[in-house]
Amino acid sequence: MFRFTIRDVLWLTVAVAIGLAWWIEHGRLLAAVADAESRLLAAVTDANIRLDEAESQRVWWERNTQIGAAAHNRTLGVIEKSGLAITGNGNARRLVKIREPDSGFNIEQQQSR
Hints:
The protein is mainly alpha-helical. It has helices at residues 6-81, 107-111, and strands at 84-89, 92-97. The model has no long low-confidence stretch (mean pLDDT 84). A two-stranded antiparallel sheet has the order 1-2. It has one domain (6-111). The longest helix has 76 residues, at 6-81. Strand 1 (84-89) and strand 2 form a beta hairpin.
């Protein structure tokens, strides 16, 4: 039969221990890589959601700024047609009459626009 010395058994034990240690460490490494990949995927998804929200807010602000500017320009046009002007500085602004209104100017028609 087979005859093993103590030295052979010790070498076999060392070889099995090294193999087992490698296998355990390899499993831990795979788990760490999978965890890092899932955290990275979650971070990228969160960043994309935040980017979409920021883009929608940018579009909203751009649209509302353009609407506000158009309304402001219409208001300035009505003020100009009515023969008034805005004077003053800082918070002390007021309308002053500088000339007679344009012929055919009617404030009710201007307000309905």
